[in-house]
Every structure is written in C-alpha cells, then in structure tokens.
C-alpha cells in the first residue's frame, strides 16, 4: 500500500499569522493631527499608502508613508505637467498649420511644369529661327 509523505514537513501544518498593527479607517486622524489643511491630500494619500502596504502606526511608519505619498504626488504632478505641455504644443502646432495656405495640388504642379517647358521650348524655337541673335549672344559670352 502507498504512503504519502510531505515534501516540506515544516510547511505542512497551519501557518502562524502575525497580527501587526495596521491602520484602519478610524486611524486617519493620526495622519492629519497637527498638520495644516493644505496637506490634507498628502495626509490622505499617506494613510492610503500605509493601509495598502501595512506600515505600522509608529512615527517612523507614518513618516515613511508621508514620504512615499509626497514622492507619488510629485511624480504624478510632473507627469501631468509634461502631458499638459505636450497637449498645448500639439494644439498650437495644429493651429499654426491651419493658418497656412493650402499647398498646390498635383494638377497645379503638373500644369506649372508644362507651362515652364512651353516657355523654354518657345525661347529655343525663337533662337533657332533668329541665328543673328544667337551669334550675338555667343559673341557676348566669348568675351
């Protein structure tokens, strides 16, 4: 008959759960006591970070969560400012592009090239029909 043995006998029994003093909803006053009202958002974020991370309600734990909250708020403010500046730049560029006149299309470019070729062809034909003018130009260029 087969027997079952545990691979890790020390882990086979019930585990001990350590009860640490975690902040609860009524402990938010610890984070806001003695702080100015301007720091309300920072204090609430510090409380949320402490609750999520399980920081103890010691002065060091509170200060650690306040520092983490300050860092998170400054990172968020920097990202928000960067994204807002980028959005303003895009809107300004789009506004400037909207003010520019519309560039000529394919047909206008083709027509301009055909007109230029016609003018050059007409000038070449006129010089071919008037050899004296061509000789005079050649004499001027020869020096």
Describe the 3D structure.
- The chain is an all-alpha fold.
- It folds into two domains: 20-99; 106-142.
- The chain is 67% helix and 0% strand.
- The protein is built from five helices and no strands.
- The protein has helices spanning 28-32, 40-53, 59-99, 106-129, 131-142.
- Helix 2 (40-53) packs across helix 3 (59-99).
- The mean pLDDT is 83.
**Overall average pLDDT:** 83
Query: How is the biggest beta sheet arranged?
Result: none
Amino-to-carboxy terminus distance = 120 Å
Shape: elongated
Helix and strand succession?
Answer: HHHHH
- The helix fraction, in percent, is 55-70%
Instruction: Tell me the number of structural domains.
Output: 2
Give me the Rg, rounded.
41 Å
Keywords: Membrane, Transmembrane, Transmembrane helix
């Amino acid at each position: 008959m087969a027997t079952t043995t545990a691979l890790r006998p020390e882990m086979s029994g019930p585990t001990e759960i350590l009860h640490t003093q975690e902040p609860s909803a009524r402990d938010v006053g610890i984070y806001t006591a003695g702080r100015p009202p301007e720091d309300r958002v920072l204090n609430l974020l510090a409380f949320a970070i402490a609750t999520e991370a399980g920081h103890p309600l010691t002065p060091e734990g509170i200060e650690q969560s306040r520092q983490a909250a300050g860092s998170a708020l400054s990172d968020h403010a920097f990202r928000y400012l960067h994204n807002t500046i980028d959005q303003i730049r895009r809107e300004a560029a789009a506004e400037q592009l909207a003010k520019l006149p519309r560039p000529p299309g394919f047909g206008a470019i083709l027509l301009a090239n055909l007109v230029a070729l016609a003018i050059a062809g007409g000038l070449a034909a006129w010089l071919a029909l008037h050899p004296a003018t061509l000789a005079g130009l050649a004499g001027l260029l020869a020096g």
